[in-house]
Write a structure and sequence with these properties.
Blueprint lengths: L5 H4 L1 E6 L13 H20 L3 E11 L8 E11 L3 E11 L6 E13 L17 H21 L1
Antiparallel strand pairs: 1-3, 2-5, 3-4, 4-5
The structure holds coenzyme A.
């Protein structure tokens, strides 16, 4: 199986926060943003696996700064680490000032996806080859989180 780099899995999705996405105080409804994140992260996972991968868990999701009606939301997702049949994908959502290009981090999320075969059973995933120091650090951090998760389940 050909290994992939995090760069090959990088997925970007743009949304404009419309009135129908807002809650009662004019900021984006969290569930809508979570749905955007799930889609963006799923495509990153599928780019890695070359086939359908399902969301197994949302491991972390922090709303750090609000998105308001009219804001341009830029989502980016990439694979942090590939395990046996599962992957950790990170997705960030930033608010972009289109006049200056400045971006503010609004959401940081990490999700686990599982690669499924034709029979619906988990299938081994290709390995991940980090290219940069940051990508290596992200993979190591993901491996530590997985080890902690597995030991907590015992
Ligand atoms: C995710 C799913 C395929 C796992 O199936 P399973 O029979 O439990 O598979 P296994 O126990 O063999 O685990 C397979 C992998 O998934 C991982 N996994 C399973 N449940 C997990 C969870 N809750 N969180 C994180 N990872 C999980 C395991 O650690 C394992 O990873 P590894 O192979 O890299 O070591 C199954 O639970 C499922 O189909 N869930 C519904 C998924 C879905 O419908 N998602 C859409 C959103 S509703």
């Amino acid at each position: 199986m050909k290994t992939r780099t995090p760069r090959e899995t990088l997925t970007e999705k743009i949304e404009i926060v419309l009135p129908q996405h807002a809650n009662a105080i004019g900021t984006a409804f969290g569930g809508t943003v979570m749905s955007w994140i799930d889609i963006c992260a799923a495509v990153a996972a599928q780019r890695h696996c070359g086939r359908v991968a399902v969301t197994a868990s949302v491991d972390a999701l922090d709303f750090l700064s609000p998105l308001r009606v009219g804001d341009v939301a830029v989502l980016r997702a990439w694979v942090n680490a590939a395990f046996r049949t599962s992957l950790e994908v990170e997705c960030v959502v930033e608010r972009e000032d289109t006049a200056t290009g400045a971006r503010v981090l609004c959401v940081d999320a990490r999700l686990t996806f599982v690669n499924l075969g034709e029979d619906g059973k988990p299938l081994p995933v290709p390995g991940l080859t980090p290219e940069t120091d940051e990508e290596h650090a992200r993979r190591e951090a993901a491996e530590r989180r997985r080890a902690a998760r597995l030991s907590a389940r015992k």
